[in-house]
Amino acid sequence: MGLCCFYAAQYDMALSCFERALSFGDDTTLADVWYNIGHVGIGIGDLGLAYQAFKISVSHSSNHAESYNNLGVLELRKGNVEQAKSNFAQSSRNSAFLFEPAYNIAYLFYKRGEFSSSFQHVNDALKLFPEHADSLELFKSLKKHFAVM
Question: Is CATH 1.25.40 what the domain over 1-62 is classified as, yes or no?
């Protein structure tokens, strides 16, 4: 409810929804509440808030794959490549059905010139979501690269 209010620009309602969710949350729901607060941080451009919210989320649930994936993206923005890679890998281990961490690590490897690893991970992403436009584009770029070799 808090995210719906936030995206509808009902900021006062969003805050009260998150406050209620935090006060009534239990161990099974607090990770998701903090994950949603992290999206609010991203939405307002406060990446420090987002980072802290995702960290709190994984402290409530060490299996929260979506939070690990978003932490990886934020670490990558900070230039912490190894930490980003670690977060993407943890996200993939925690949730084999998510295509985002596979794509994100594939893109990271591509940018680092590790085309073989990138190809492996983009294939994993496409197995999970065959129509993902960014994965398809990366796959085409990698095929071109390998054709030239």
Answer: yes
